[in-house]
Structures are given as structure tokens and as C-alpha cells.
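Dear V.,

Thank you for sending over the compound details. I've combined the ligand you provided, NAX, with the protein sequence from our construct and run the structure prediction for the complex. I'm sharing the raw inputs here so there's no ambiguity about protonation or stereochemistry in the SMILES, which I know was a concern on your side last time.
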Amino acid sequence: MPIRHLTADAVRTAEHAAGDLLANGTLMRRASGGVAATVIEELRRTGGCYGRHVGLVVGAGDNGGDALYAAAALARRGVRCVAVLLAPQRAHPAGLTAFRASGGRVVAELPAGLDVVLDGVVGIGGRGPLRPAAAAVFAALVPADQGGPIVVAVDVPSGVDADTGQVHDPAVRADITVTFGVRRLAHLLAGPQCGRVRLVDIGIDTSGADEVDTLWELTDAEVGRMWPVPGPSDDKYSQGVVGVIAGSARYPGAAILASGAAVTATSGMTRFVGSAAADVVSHHPEVVAVARYADAGRVQAWAVGPGMGTDDDALALLGEILATDLPVLVDADGLTLLAAHPELVADRAAPTLLTPHAGEFARLTGADVGSDRLGAVRGLARDWRVTVLLKGRITLVADPTGTVLGNDAGSSWAATAGAGDVLTGIAGGLLAAGLSPQLAGAAAARVHARAAARAARGAPIGAADLLAEVRDAVRDVRAGLGQWSR
Ligand SMILES: NC(=O)C1=CN([C@@H]2O[C@H](COP(=O)(O)OP(=O)(O)OC[C@H]3O[C@@H](n4cnc5c(N)ncnc54)[C@H](O)[C@@H]3O)[C@@H](O)[C@H]2O)[C@@H](O)CC1
Ligand SMILES: [K+]
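Below is the predicted structure of the protein with NAX bound, written out as C-alpha cells.
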């Protein structure tokens, strides 16, 4: 089962349903216990609990209550806890009583030399940026990698919108985020701002949540299991032949990268159509490359667009491809053409995957992606009745029914020229092998991100370096699977 992320409303619905069955305060006790356990683990890892220093920043809601109860538990283990109350009159009363009773002290500002700072300003009830008093407390902290305290966010880093993942300015940047029952949308959409996300089981049931409230993330094992590999009865045709249309004789790079990626991602056969056919073959001799579409031969899916140009010939070719009943991936120049000719996909019944970056997305819709990337990608997929993969550090793949798969690349090394051409080749290969556009897009994004991280190992890379690591990235996600698993 992919990892589920939910909206704040859906979280609240599940909490209320569980809360009705439990004694008052049980959920908060479990939540704060999880926060305390996380801090204890962190303190133990760095020398032990007794005599260590933890600071809290406490807002007006239950998020502050979680922080106060967690600190009360820490204080009982000999941790010295101090709290800044941003709204002293409205701080969670029972939490504050527990905090004081176990030796916690309220202070006007956080002292230097803290080991951990708990962000209990706001959780899923937060709106907008950190207000000035909270912003000043966090601005004064030395970052953890420069010897400052580890910042542990309770539920979500304050100033990060729990539903859209919008990182307001200012917002807390957490090293660790501890959340409860189910991950919130922001934990994927704003992954880099949340640090390591730790999920605490508080006994709520989220299995009935609606798809519109949900964002899914595949596990590596799931990507590994769906990766197409040849079985005992396969030949070069039976595994799905992909056709790549990219680049030009003048600009062969996109052609070489996209067709190379298709070769690397799956077994079987890659065909290529375009004026860069000779360049493609000189780099990848296994590609069956021709100059004209009429000579292409049969394929099970097309990946079209990178560097193909936007002239009338390119438009005519794109139209021919989209008029087939084969799965088609459209990227780059193909998307620029589609933005001016949306009628080319209007009546398409066959699987269709568009892979825009933010600029191409704006061309397709006439509006910027904006701060709600999830809502935006869902809207385009629904309105155009196609699957849309919106590129970025966090890749989102929406199908027309509203199901969305997300992938956090974990690093931004893939933000380099030509990396998109590689993604096109990988996803095209998966489409030809029979994966749905959504799974092809999401699985390709995962392997692409892994390949980028493998290639980089701390230094900038080019797209050819990324391509060279795709095979090992596939091995990574398939590690541990049986030989003939398919
Ligand atoms: N409801 C439940 O059953 C559970 C709730 N839990 C905790 O409760 C949290 C939600 O609590 P609340 O609904 O009280 O909401 P929060 O504690 O997230 O914040 C709401 C309060 O903050 C104020 N506020 C909003 N934006 C602000 C900003 N930018 N700066 C300063 N103040 C701002 C609001 O006016 C309101 O008073 C969760 O995130 C979680 O930490 C957990 O204890 C688990 C169980
Ligand atoms: K918080």
C-alpha cells in the first residue's frame, strides 16, 4: 500500500471519530508521548537525557498542548525544559499545569546552548506565516549544522500550510517533524522543510478518507515490484516496444538522452524517429532509428517532444501520433505545441501522459502553478482528461479521476539541462511495457531521482551522468525481489 498523506480536514474527521470512543485527552497523551519519545531518542543518540536542555515555543492551540505535555514527560527524565509562551493567556491550560508540575519553567526568551527546540506554535490549525514574536525566536537560533539545537516540529513546521505545503515567509525549518496517525499533505509537498518525518500511531482510522483529501507516495519496494523485467517466455517484442521522437540533426542531445534512457529503463526494443537518427545510433547502437514516421515500425507507446521543435512539421507529426490509439507521453516542445492546440488530445481515449515543468504547465493552463501545486495538477488532469506529471523537487502525477502520486526527489541534483529528456525516455519505456500513465510517471520519477543522487554524491552532475546511473537505480528499487518477478 502506498504511503497516504491527508488534508487537515480529513485528519480532524478521523480524530473526532476516534476521540468519541476514547477517554478525553487520550489522543493528545499518545501524540505528546510520541514527541517525547522522539526527543529522547535524539538526546540519547547525542549523549543521554539527564541534564540536557530543551526549549519550547508554545502557541495558543492544541499543538502547543502537545509540546507542553511532551516537555512534562522529558522533565520527569531529568531534561531541563524552558518554554516561551506566545499567548500566555491562551496556552493549553492542562498542558501548562503538567509542564510546571514536573519542573518546567516559563521564560521570556530562549537561552543559548539548547540541545533541542520544540516547535509547538501551530499545527494543522495554522494559517499564514509565523507572526513576529515567533519569527524572532526562531530567527535567533543557530542552525543545527552549525552547532545549534535540533528543531523538532510538532505535527507540521509552523508557517508551512498543512494542505498545500506552501512555505510562508517566515516559517520554521525543522530537522525532524513528528506527526500523528497519518501524514499530512505538507509532509510530502514541503518535504525539505519538514526534515525527517516520524509518524506516531495514535490509534485513528484513516482508511475511509476520500481521494480528494489524499496524496499517495509509492514505496521503493512497490516501484521495484512493478518494474518490467523479462520473464521466461519473453522476446524483444513481447515486452513492449517504445518509440521516441525527440531532438533534431542540429540539436541531437535530447534525442540521444531520451532514447538512451528508454534503452536503459526496460528490455526489449527502442525505436527512434527523427533527423537525429544517425547520432542516436552512434551513441546507442541497439536503437532502431529512422528519419521518417512512415518507416517507424510498430510500437506499443510513444514518447514525444523533447527538442523536436515547434514548427508545422513537428505539429503535424504530433497530431499523427496523438491520433493513434497507443499510449503517448508528451513533453517539452510537444507541450508547447499542445498548449496552442489542445484539440489534439480533446477526444483521446488512449492513455496520455503530459510531463510539464512549471513553465510548460503555465503555457498549458494560461496561469501560473501558484502555491497550491496539488490543486493545480489535479485541475489540469481533470479538465483535459489526461494524466499530468508536474516536475519539480516534488513531482506530482495526477490522473483524471483525482488520484495523485507524489515523489520527493530527496535532493535537487536533477535540476540540470537534459534531465527531463531522461525522464521522458524512462517513463516512455514503462508506458510501452504496459504500466498506466500514472504508475509509469511516478515510477520513472523515483528511479530518476535515485539515479541523480547516485550520480551526484555531493557534486553537480549533467544529464548524461544521471542516465549512466539509471540501471543501478533500478537495481536499488528491485533489490531483494526474486529473479523472475514481474
Ligand atoms: N484534535 C485531536 O484530536 C488531536 C490534535 N492534536 C494536535 O492539535 C493540533 C491542532 O490543534 P488546534 O486545532 O488547536 O490548532 P493549532 O494548535 O494548530 O493552532 C490553532 C491556534 O493558532 C492560531 N493561529 C493560526 N495561525 C497562526 C499563526 N500563523 N501564528 C500564530 N497563531 C496562529 C489560531 O487562531 C488558533 O488559536 C494538531 O496539529 C496536533 O498537534 C494532537 O494532540 C492529536 C490529537
Ligand atoms: K508546529
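A first observation: Residues 3-214 form a domain with the Rossmann fold fold (CATH 3.40.50.10260).

Warm regards,
I. M.
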